[in-house]
Amino acid sequence: SSPVLILLVDVLLKMVLWAAEKRCPGAYKWVSFGAAICVMFGMGTLYAYSAYSEALKVKMGYTQTDANLVSSIGDLGLYFGGLPCGLMYDLFGAKISYSISGVTGFLGYFLMLLGTMGLIPGGAIPMGLYLFISGFGSFAGYSSGLVTNVRNFAPEHRGKITGILVSAYGLSAAIVSRLNSSLFGKDVVGSLFFLTLVAGCLPLLGVIFVQLTTDNPTAPKNDPKRETLGSLQKPLSPSDAPVTEETATLLPPPPRDVAKYGEITGLKLLINIDFILLFFTQLLGCGVGLLFINTVGEIIKSWRITDIAVPTFVIVLSLSNCAGRLIFGLSCDLVKKIRLPPSALLFVCLFLLAIGHLLMIFVQTSVGLMIGTILTGLSYGGQFAVIPIVLNTYYGDKYYATNVGMQALSVAAGVLLLSLISGKIYDSHAIIDADGVPQCYGSDCWQGTFIMTAALAAAAHLFVAILVFRERRFDARRRMHVETYD
Fold this sequence. Notes:
Blueprint lengths: L1 H22 L3 H14 L8 H12 L3 H17 L1 H11 L1 H23 L7 H29 L5 H27 L3 H14 L1 H7 L19 H4 L12 H6 L15 H5 L2 H30 L7 H26 L9 H18 L3 H30 L4 H30 L1 E2 L5 E2 L4 H42 L1
Antiparallel strand pairs: 1-2
């Protein structure tokens, strides 16, 4: 009876909103936008893992490598799930995607709950697989709200729309962590029950309210398909022949609001040089950031920080993550006015990340960790605001969800590799306590990890430098072409 009730409510609300749209054209996209924000508040629950990871570790008798493995496999669901989630959205739309998000989000956390209660296998790998299922649901809900609303609003507002949506996603961990600590404390069973309800119920708002509007501004009124630079002027791609004065006079100037490479995906995307540069930039930058998010609770314990509680750090990390997404998302619209590509903002993101992790190599106190937490959150959030906008600018709207999912594979690869290395470094310095659980205290536990992550964040600047150089060269060719035509 529940699906029938949901369907009836959906139909009734659609009738009311249709009537409102007739009286106030354009109103429905704002309803869709608001509903997507509400759903985003519950889709980032994997970022709250540190809030209950220590309690889970003690209850289940995990080593730090085991605890890292659970979160890493969950992150694989979040980011490896990006490709099938994107394809699912492009084929079936937001309603199906949100439905899958609710079902898989509920199922994953519910299985984890049963695992902690001893009713089903609760080893690190099974628990990771349960979290993998929830991670898949998280990305389905994330991509549904993001892609739908990017398409609903005009291109000049995409930075703002993306920034607001992804900042709500980043804020999710702060909200969930705060509610969880207030309601359940260190009770991991209660925590997982709460997460089960959040992940399973919130996507229903998306099923009912979020959809593409009929007045989609990304398509010209006289043409249902959006033209792209790739279809109008193939030679303008930096990987193709340069535009000469002769060819420039033969072609019309390109519209400003077009995709750089045209509407491409699949193999063409995988062999595109700019996509490869973005892939490795995110592999290093977001891989480092997500590793820190997953392990901040253990870092606090190893450094014997008692003046600030773990939930406080998780909340600060989530708030800074949210702020980074909002600030850098809004900045993407601003830098275009001074002829800078949005990808240039990745320099700032990676610089903040490198400085934060360099600081934590030498200042292993609550103050040093707090500063490092804020800088990591700003950087991580900023990358997740900038990269989707760059992808849309390069490759267009048609396959946007699929392309975002393909790009997300980089984060999965990065965090899995870094988590395994970090866990091995930690366990090499750990001793077995009275309960048989490996524990590590002191500077050696995480110093090697921070040396590695600071170096990788610095190295990622090289990929961004090449990307920005290529894009500025491309823009110069386009401006030359327009001036020649005029």
